[in-house]
Amino acid sequence: MIQIEKSFMRKYLLPAILLILAVILSACSPKTAEQPQVSDVTQELAEFTLEELAQYDGKDGREAYVAVDGVVYDVTRSSLWKGGEHNGFTAGRDLTEEIKNVSPHGVSKLNNIPVVGRIKE
Length: 121
Ligand code: HEM
What we know:
It is built from 4 helices and 6 strands; from the N terminus they run ααβαββββαβ. The protein has helices at 2-28, 38-44, 50-53, 96-101, and strands at residues 46-48, 65-68, 71-74, 85-86, 89-90, 115-119. The strands form 2 sheets. It has a 4-stranded mixed β-sheet with strand order 1-6-3-2. Strands 4-5 form a two-stranded antiparallel sheet. It starts with a helix and ends with a strand. Residues 66, 68, 75, 78, 80, 86-87, 89, 95, 98-99, 102-105, 109-110, 112-113 line the site of protoporphyrin IX containing FE.
């Protein structure tokens, strides 16, 4: 009888206790406390008025930024936006309508472009 109880303990009871302890410990550990949340990262982004955005026209060594749907993208390092110009469009502006209704590619081309801020409401 004692033999059976010992092997039962070793086989089931001890692993079960260890499992419960592991679950309790992992539930108590502060997993995400140190990680910035997505909303925090968005809040850290710069805010631009359209007037401020106009200074980033890619001319005379200035950075080239464009805004689409309230998000400001940095196209300075794109070879297709040299000098802030791209197929007749100039950086430093909100080009939401143009990228959606005039360009042949739509907004998908922005996927690999760095975001630097958003437009001030
Ligand atoms: C007549 C209008 C336009 C034409 C013909 C045009 C054409 C093109 C072409 C051919 C490419 C390269 C596509 C590829 O690599 O697969 C491109 C890329 C791109 N276009 Fe346009 N585009 C136009 C307007 C616009 C507008 C209004 C925007 C506004 C933001 C824009 C933003 C971009 C961006 C961000 C890229 C990607 C650049 C890169 O990855 O380096 N385009 N465009």
